[in-house]
Automatic annotation (TrEMBL):
Domain spans labelled B box-type: 224-266
GO biological process, one term: microtubule bundle formation
Secretion signal, residue range per the UniProt entry: none
Region (Disordered): 54-118, 684-708
Biased composition (Pro residues): 54-63
Record's keyword annotation contains Repeat: no
One annotated Gene Ontology cellular component of this protein: axon cytoplasm
Keywords: Coiled coil, Metal-binding, Zinc, Zinc-finger
Fibronectin type-III domain location: 432-543
InterPro entries the UniProt entry points to: B30.2/SPRY_sf, ConA-like_dom_sf, COS_domain, E3_ligase_FN3/SPRY, FN3_dom, FN3_sf, Ig-like_fold, Midline-1_COS
Protein name: Tripartite motif containing 46b
Length: 792
C-alpha cells in the first residue's frame, strides 16, 4: 500500500503542472504555442475570438460515446465496419480559412475570394496574449494551424486521471445495441473507436490486417499516433532545427529559411534532450537537502514578511500621525499669527475712526477749537493755540491724503499649498535607486579599468553603489570559447564585486591582459539594492601599458611645437619662421616636419600605449622608430625637401634597396578627421591574441591604389612586440586592430610623433595617476617589461 499511496501522492502533485493558464483547469487537447507554453485548443480559440480574430471551425467536444453515429449492436447480421473518423485536432488545424458568412464577414487579408487580386495586402498576423510569458506571441498568418498538438502532455494527463480517478467517466462501447450497451474495455487507435471485448474480436478478426491495429485504453479523446507536419499533409516530423527550435518534415527542411541552420534528426535531438533533462533531474534530486533548506528559508521569509508588514504598517500609521501633529502644530501657529494681525489692524483702524469723529462740528477737536477762539487774552491764546494749530494742520493733511491705517484684505495671509499638496499626493514609500546609466565615453580599459556612471534624473538617491565584474572567456577573434558551451561556461563564472563604492566612478585593478570583462552597477539606499545597469564589455590592452612622457629636450623647436607642463600633450603652432617662409612662397608649398619622441627606449618585451589626435589636425604621424635613426633625423634639415626620405614609408633611400630588412620607422598618418591605412600591410593573420579578428580596414572606407582612409578613432592604441619587430595599431576604444607593420628592432626603439602643419595630440593618462600628482620622469631604458596591469 505504501508504494501505491506514494504514486498517488506524486501524481496529485502534478496537477499544478497540468493546468491551462487560461481556464485554470486541466488541459484538454493542448497545443504548443511558439513560446513553448501549452494551452487548451478551445481556450486558445476563445482568446483569439475575444481579441477580434476570425474564429476557427472547432468540432463539438465529445461528451459521451453516444455522440458517435455508429451505435448498432455487434450481433446484427450485417454491420458496417467502423470508419476512421477524422481527428478533431486535424480537422481544426488543417481547416483553412472558413468561407464568408453573413454572421462572420471575412476580415481583410484572411483567405481568398473571387475577384481578389494577389498581393493586395499583407496577411493578417495573429498575436496571442500568452499569460505565462506576459507578452503577445506571434502565431503568424495561419493562426493555430502552425501550432502542433502536445501529445506528450495529453498522455501525462490521461495517466494522471487514471491514477487519481479524477472525473473518470465510464466509456461505453460504440457498437453495442443501446439496450445491451456494455462498458468499453479497449480502444483502437487506428479505428479511433471504443469496443467491448466481443465487439473488438468481431471487428478485428485474426489473420486480417485489422488484427494488427494498436489497442489502447478506452478514451473519449483519440490522439494521432505520430505528429505530422501542419503544412504538408501526412509528412512525419523527422528533423529538428536547433536555430529555429522547431520540428521539421523532409519538405520543410528544404526551405530557404533554414539554409545554414543546424538541423538534426529527431532521434538525435530526442536523445540529446533526454540526456540533458535526465542529468538536470538527477542534479536536482541529488540536491534535495538544498531544496529543503531553501524551502525552509522561503517559509521563514514568508513569516518575516508577515511580521515586517505589521511593523511597516505601524510605522506608516506613526508617520501619518506625525504629519498630522505637525500640521496641527503649524495650524495653531498660523492661526495665532493671523489673530495677532487682526487685532493690530483693528486697533489701528479704530484709532483712525476715533480721530475722524473728533473732526465733527460739535465734537472733539472742533468743539475745543471753537472754545479756544473765544479767548481774548492774547498771550494766553498764543500759548494755548500752538498745539491746536499743529493738530488742525495734521487733520487737514489727513483729510486731503486719506488712507486706511491698515489693510483689511488679509491677502498676505493666504497659504499656497500647491507644492505641499503635490508632495502629499506623491507621498510614497521609499524607492530603491533605478538602474544606473554607464557613461561609455568616459569608461575605458587601460592600465586599470575605469568605470563611470550616473543615475537617471527621476531616480531616488543612492547611498552607495555596488560594482560587479567578471571575465568573459575569449579566443582570438573575441568569440566565446567552445561556441555555445563556452558561452554557457563563461556565464557561470562568478561575479566579483566592489561594495559600498561612493561617488559615480570606480577603478578596478589586477586584471588579466587581452581579456574581455563584463561590468554592471547597481545603487543602494535604505530601500535596498536597485536594478542593475546594462552590462558593458571592456577589452583590456593586449600587452602591459607603457607609461612615458614627451621629451621636450631632444631637438624640440619651441617656435613650432608647444609641450604642456605635464609633458603629455603637444601642439603644433605656426611660428615666426614658418610664417616668414609662407610669406615668401608664391608658387610652391613649403611644409615643415617636426619630430617629437617619448622619453623611454624599449629594448625587449611587448608594450602598449595610446594617444588621441585632435580631429582638426592637418597632418600627424604616430608610430615608433629606432633611437639611432631618430637622432640622425634631428641632424637633417627639418624642411621636407627630399621625396626619397619619407618616415611613413618606414625606410630611407638606402633602405629601399634592401627589401629584406625591416624599416627603421613605422608610422600611421592621420589628419582632418581621417586616418590613412596602407593596403600593403593589412593585419590579417598574425600571432597576436587578437589576430583572428578582422581588421577595421576591410574595404568599407574609400580606397585608393595604395591604401584607404577611415574615420579617425577617438583614441589610437599601439602595441610593439620588440622580439618580433612588429607594431600593431588599434582603435583603443574597442581594441579592434587597424593596421600592422614591421620595424627594425636591432636597437632601442622609441615612441615617435611627427607634426606637419597645425595639429595636436595627447598621450593617454594612466588611470592610476588620474588623482595623483604627476611628476615627469627622466629618460629611462626599459629592461624588464613595465606594466600596471597585473594578471591574476
Amino acid at each position: 500500500m505504501a508504494p501505491r499511496f506514494q504514486v498517488k501522492s506524486n501524481m496529485k502533485s502534478l496537477e499544478h503542472e497540468l493546468h491551462c493558464p487560461v481556464c485554470k483547469d486541466i488541459v484538454k487537447q493542448p497545443v504548443v504555442l511558439p513560446c513553448q507554453h501549452s494551452v487548451c485548443l478551445m481556450c486558445a480559440s476563445e482568446v483569439l475570438v475575444a481579441n477580434g480574430y476570425p474564429p476557427p471551425e472547432l468540432p463539438p467536444e465529445p461528451n459521451s460515446p453516444a455522440s458517435t453515429p455508429n451505435t448498432r449492436s455487434p450481433r446484427q447480421a450485417r454491420r458496417p465496419t467502423p470508419k476512421a473518423e477524422q481527428r478533431p485536432i486535424d480537422r481544426i488545424l488543417r481547416s483553412g480559412p472558413h468561407p464568408p458568412s453573413p454572421s462572420m464577414p471575412r476580415s481583410p487579408g484572411y483567405g481568398t475570394y473571387p475577384g481578389r487580386r494577389r498581393k493586395e495586402g499583407p496577411p493578417l498576423v495573429m498575436m496571442f496574449p500568452c499569460i505565462p510569458c506576459g507578452r503577445d506571441v506571434e502565431l503568424g498568418d495561419k493562426g493555430l494551424t502552425d501550432c502542433l498538438r502536445n501529445l506528450t502532455l495529453e498522455r501525462i494527463v490521461e495517466r494522471y486521471r487514471h491514477t487519481v480517478s479524477l472525473g473518470s467517466v465510464a466509456v461505453m462501447c460504440q457498437f453495442c445495441k443501446p439496450p445491451q450497451t456494455l462498458e468499453a474495455t479497449k480502444g483502437c487507435a487506428d479505428c479511433r473507436a471504443n469496443f467491448c471485448n466481443e465487439c473488438f474480436k468481431l471487428y478485428h478478426p485474426w489473420g486480417t490486417p485489422r488484427a494488427q491495429h494498436e489497442h489502447i485504453q478506452p478514451t473519449l479523446n483519440f490522439r494521432p499516433k505520430v505528429l505530422t507536419c501542419p503544412e504538408h499533409d501526412q509528412e512525419k516530423l523527422q528533423f529538428y532545427c536547433r536555430s529555429c527550435q522547431r520540428l521539421l518534415c523532409p519538405l520543410c527542411k528544404l526551405r530557404r529559411c533554414h539554409t545554414g541552420h543546424k538541423i538534426l534528426p529527431v532521434a538525435q535531438a530526442y536523445q540529446a534532450l533526454k540526456e540533458k533533462i535526465t542529468k538536470e533531474m538527477n542534479y536536482i534530486l541529488s540536491n534535495q537537502d538544498t531544496v529543503l533548506a531553501q524551502i525552509t528559508q522561503l517559509e521563514s521569509g514568508i513569516t518575516q514578511t508577515e511580521v515586517n508588514s505589521v511593523s511597516a504598517r505601524e510605522q506608516l500609521a506613526q508617520s501619518i500621525r506625525d504629519l498630522t501633529a505637525a500640521l496641527a502644530e503649524r495650524h495653531a501657529s498660523l492661526t495665532q499669527a493671523l489673530e495677532a494681525a487682526r487685532q493690530k489692524r483693528g486697533e489701528a483702524l479704530a484709532a483712525q475712526v476715533a480721530e475722524r469723529r473728533g473732526l465733527m462740528e460739535h465734537a472733539g477737536l472742533m468743539a475745543f477749537t471753537q472754545e479756544l477762539l473765544k479767548e481774548t487774552d492774547q498771550p494766553c491764546f498764543v500759548q494755548a493755540a500752538r498745539q491746536t494749530h499743529n493738530r488742525l494742520s495734521k487733520a487737514i493733511e489727513n483729510l486731503q491724503h486719506f488712507t486706511l491705517a491698515a489693510d483689511p484684505s488679509f491677502r498676505h495671509f493666504q497659504l499656497d499649498v500647491s507644492k505641499e499638496l503635490k508632495l502629499l499626493t506623491e507621498l510614497n514609500f521609499i524607492q530603491a535607486p533605478q538602474a544606473p546609466v554607464i557613461d561609455t565615453q568616459r569608461t575605458l580599459a587601460y592600465d586599470q579599468l575605469f568605470l563611470c556612471w550616473r543615475l537617471p534624473q527621476e531616480s531616488a538617491p543612492a547611498w552607495h553603489f555596488s560594482v560587479e565584474y567578471r571575465r568573459r572567456g575569449v579566443v582570438p577573434g573575441g568569440a566565446s570559447r567552445g561556441g555555445i558551451r563556452g558561452g554557457l561556461s563563461a556565464a557561470r563564472w562568478g561575479w566579483q564585486r566592489l561594495d559600498e563604492v561612493s561617488g559615480s566612478s570606480a577603478v578596478i585593478d589586477r586584471l588579466e591582459m587581452d581579456s574581455v570583462y563584463v561590468l554592471r552597477v547597481r545603487g543602494c539606499n535604505k530601500a535596498g539594492y536597485g536594478e542593475y545597469s546594462e552590462e558593458v564589455y571592456l577589452h583590456t590592452p593586449p600587452a602591459p601599458v607603457l607609461n612615458f612622457y614627451l621629451d621636450s629636450r631632444w631637438g624640440l623647436h619651441a617656435d613650432r611645437l608647444v609641450v604642456s607642463k605635464e609633458q603629455r600633450c603637444a601642439r603644433s603652432v605656426p611660428g615666426l619662421s614658418l610664417l616668414q617662409a609662407a610669406d615668401h612662397a608664391l608658387t610652391s608649398c613649403h611644409l615643415t616636419s617636426d619630430l617629437l619622441v617619448g622619453d623611454v627606449a624599449i629594448t625587449q618585451g611587448r608594450h602598449y600605449w595610446a594617444c588621441s589626435v585632435e580631429p582638426g589636425s592637418y597632418l600627424v604621424k604616430v608610430g615608433v622608430g629606432l633611437e639611432s635613426k631618430l637622432q640622425e633625423w634631428f641632424h637633417l634639415p627639418q624642411d621636407m625637401a627630399s621625396p626619397r626620405y619619407d618616415p611613413d614609408s618606414g625606410h630611407d633611400s638606402g633602405a629601399e634597396d634592401a627589401l629584406d630588412s625591416a624599416p627603421p620607422f613605422c608610422f600611421l598618418t592621420m589628419g582632418m578627421g581621417k586616418i590613412y591605412l596602407p593596403q600593403h600591410n593589412y593585419h590579417h593573420h598574425g600571432s597576436h591574441g587578437n589576430s583572428a579578428r578582422d581588421p577595421i580596414t576591410n574595404g568599407n572606407g574609400p580606397s585608393s591604389p595604395s591604401g584607404l582612409t577611415y574615420p579617425l578613432p577617438p583614441r589610437l592604441g599601439m602595441c610593439l612586440d620588440f622580439e618580433k619587430g612588429r607594431v600593431t595599431f588599434y582603435d583603443a576604444h574597442s581594441l579592434r586592430p587597424l593596421w600592422e607593420g614591421h620595424v627594425d628592432c636591432s636597437g632601442p626603439v622609441c615612441p615617435a610623433f611627427c607634426f606637419i602643419g597645425g595639429g595636436a595630440l595627447q598621450l593617454q593618462e594612466l588611470v592610476a595617476n588620474r588623482n595623483a600628482d604627476q611628476t615627469p620622469v627622466r629618460r629611462v631604458t626599459i629592461q624588464p617589461r613595465v606594466s600596471n596591469l597585473n594578471s591574476n
